[in-house]
Amino acid sequence: MDHFLNVVDVEATCWPGSPPPGMVSEIIEIGLTVVDLAAGERLSRHGIVVKPARSTVSPFCTELTGLTEDEVGRGVPFAEACRILAADHKAGSRPWASWGDYDRKQFTRQCAATGTRYPFSRDHTNAKLPFTAAHGLRKRPGMAQALTIAGLPLEGRHHRGEDDAWNIAALILHLASRDAWSLPAEEAERRADHAR
């Protein structure tokens, strides 16, 4: 069994309110950390800056993410970013996780809108759910709050995809160390064994 997991976090164009006329929220950064669940280690971190096609980076977005219009203007097109995920990071076959479902849904929406092949496997885990259960919480915490609860430092800048993926990976390893993390395929197998 492959014990590697891709942890993904995206940043997208955003505004303090609704998007301006003619613009849509688009991915401008993809952060990815590869985790070896068996070894309990974060192996590598990656950041892909993506050039938006139907929106611009607002001052609000720059304040939140640190990404500027010039910086994303030098990024790769979305379809190329998806190709990189599939070719260089085994996104189509490797299980993956994100903090919440936003990242998965944003990829689904943007792939459908642009006719781009979805780069990820169906084996996705919303890491917020097992964290909430493992800590007996009533409300699902944001990533920064979860790090505080787990006693882990926030490394890097919050709302930067590469840094957030690195921090989410630390939360997943925290869960794994407490036997509170399993991949969807392992969970399905465990349920099937209990049903027998």
Automatic annotation (TrEMBL):
InterPro entries: 3-5_Exoribonuclease, ERI-1_3'hExo-like, Ribonucl_H, RNaseH-like_sf, RNaseH_sf
Source taxon at top rank: Bacteria
Sequence ranges assigned to domain Exonuclease in this UniProt record: 4-181
Transmembrane annotation, as ranges: none
Secretion signal, residue range per the UniProt entry: none
SUPFAM superfamilies tied to this protein: Ribonuclease H-like
GO molecular function: 3'-5'-RNA exonuclease activity; nucleic acid binding
Entry keywords, A to Z: Exonuclease, Hydrolase, Nuclease
PANTHER family: 3'-5' EXONUCLEASE ERI1-RELATED, 3'-5' EXORIBONUCLEASE 1-RELATED
Protein's name in the database: Inhibitor of KinA sporulation pathway (Predicted exonuclease)
Biological source species: Nonomuraea endophytica
